[in-house]
Amino acid sequence: MYTIERLYAPITERASRNPAIGTPAYTDNAIALRPATAGSSFSWAMHLLPAQRRQALCALYAFCREVDDIADGEASHALKQTLLSNWRGEIAHLYGGRPRNSVTLGLSKAVHLYGLRCHDFLAIIDGAEMKAQTDIRAPSFAQLDRYCECVAVAVGRLSVRIFGDETPAGERVAAELGRALQLTDILRDLAEDAKRHRLYLPRELLHAHGIFATTPSWVLAQSALPDVCHDLAVLAGRHYTAAAEAIAARPRSTMRPAAVMLGIYRAVLDELLARGWQRLDEPIRIPSWRKLALLLRHGLTGR
What integer best gives the mean pLDDT of the chain? Predict the structure, then answer.
């Protein structure tokens, strides 16, 4: 799941899908998405953005949701590849000034207003293809980093532009924070991913702790699993530290949403470390009062 998908609850109203590209026809406007309830990790953070930027982020969410639904769907690998190739065509039409469906129509204004770049959308499709082509199991560190680059960092680069930062320094925020968030998602979603026959823990860490198999359910049952996860959590923590430094170097006005995301997700990582990885069926939840405190702390300071 793309990290940005946790910004919003599932789309509540969809018309029938266009079978050619698998996209919904929204009834009210190009992107008729509603923010999640106040329980969602980031629904409050998004209210730090002006309405036009918030709408652009909704459009980005809708695109991520569409391609991720294809990758996680029940279709054959061949059909998934065809549907994702069709999305490449839709992005080409978007940047050719001829958006053809509700999602790219919703993105069109954001592309022009905030300088959203074509290669970032294509990278997101690349990430979906990585999941669609084969079940990812114990990737190398290099493969995992490539996956994070596509499904989180590319989304982050688009997001920081929507927030108002189009600089290389803003891209550093996206690079560090995107990796931190995605590694946290991996550590939180081990059981859910295993049900899809996926295992994102890097093979180098597994081998370092004596685990050489790649069958997800078997790996999750190993006594050394908490040590593997702890090592990956340490790596995520380093990315959070680097992201905080990158955010501190940018104007507060543009970094408030990113700072809130960092604060809430780092709290999730802290809860994972406290719970450990021996009770994977025990969900991690951040209480609403704590989310509000994090929103006030990071939203007001932008740090």
Answer: 87
Compute the distance between CA of residue 148 and CA of residue 238 in angstroms, rounded to an integer.
15
Per-residue pLDDT reduced to its tens digit, 232-262: 999 999 999 999 999 999 999 999 999 999 9
N residues, the chain: 303
Nearest to 191 by CA among 203, 200, 180: 200
β-bridge partners, 199: 137
Q: Which of 45, 80, 58 is nearest to 5 (CA)?
A: 58
Angstrom distance (rounded) from CA 138 to CA 143: 9
What are the distances in angstroms from CA 172 to CA 48, 169, 177? Answer: 21, 5, 8
Please state, in angstroms and rounded to a whole number, the distance separating the CA atoms of residues 115 and 32.
Answer: 22
Q: To which residue do tokens 């809708």 refer?
A: 62
Q: What are phi and psi of 128, to 5 degrees?
A: -65, -40
Domains of the chain: 3-301 (1.10.600.10)
Instruction: Let me know: does 178 contact 148? Beta carbons within 8 Å.
Output: yes
